[in-house]
Amino acid sequence: DETEEAHDEL
Amino acid sequence: MNIFRLAGDLSHLAAIIILLIKIWKTRSCAGISGRSQVLFAIVFITRYLDLFTNFISAYNTAMKVFFLGSSIGTVYLMYLKFKATYDHNHDTFRIEFLLLPTALLSLVLNHEFSVMEILWTFSIYLESVAILPQLFMVSKTGEAESITSHYLFALGSYRGLYILNWIYRYYFEGFYDIIAIVAGCVQTILYCDFFYLYITKVLKGKKLQLPA
User: Fold this and answer.
1) Are B78 and B29 in contact (CB under 8 A)?
2) Which phi and psi angles does B26 have, rounded to 5°?
3) What's the half-sphere exposure (Cβ side, CA atoms, 13 Å) at B72?
4) pLDDT per residue as tens digits for the range B53-105
5) Do A10 and B117 make contact, defined as CB atoms within 8 angstroms?
6) Which of B9, B40, B115, B128 has a CA positioned 20 to 30 A from the CA of residue B159?
7) Which residues of B touch A7 (CB under 8 A)?
8) Which residues of B lie inside 8 Å of A (Cβ-Cβ)?
9) ∠ CA B190-B194-B200 to the nearest 5 degrees?
10) Do B56 and A3 touch (CB under 8 A)?
């Protein structure tokens, strides 16, 4: 589930 | 981390450093849109709140701290320290026309209806259009100093390189973030006209002047 992932880009 | 993302980040970093050097060395922010700089500061503040909740890497944290500090510093230089040189007569783009639609859109189109996620989404949407007051200012005055052109070129290249990064990540990691991709494409498209002028004029040693 992508919403659970942190945003790893700047 | 792939080469496109690293190149994109370095291009973004270069843009900010070029801008700070220009303001500091010339003791002037002439030709720079304070409104775009305020929007970029809002972009970084709303996006990097996760500095307090998530640790990704030392690189990630260091870059976020630098982007936050430099964007707030730029606003300080423009509106306080070198206020007298700020060309506000030509910086007239109404930023509420950017802030309100992007705020509304982030409430409707987001990955998750939570405060952090909505602020992140808002920052992505706002970033995609935050350069418009600056481009409007260049079109209004009809010209830009070379150093301002280099700044805009580096800033535009950053999101263009991120598109290559997203293509790479989609194929090799199966990862994609549709919000970032669509907004990033919009952001890059806004620079196309400028890229054309930069390549055909500035790189040939001429000043960036718009056709009358």
Assistant:
1) yes
2) -90, -5
3) 8
4) 999 999 999 999 999 999 999 999 999 999 999 999 999 999 999 999 999 99
5) no
6) B115
7) 47, 50, 120, 177
8) 5, 9, 12, 47, 50, 54, 56, 60, 63-64, 67, 111-112, 117, 120, 162, 165, 177, 180
9) 150
10) no
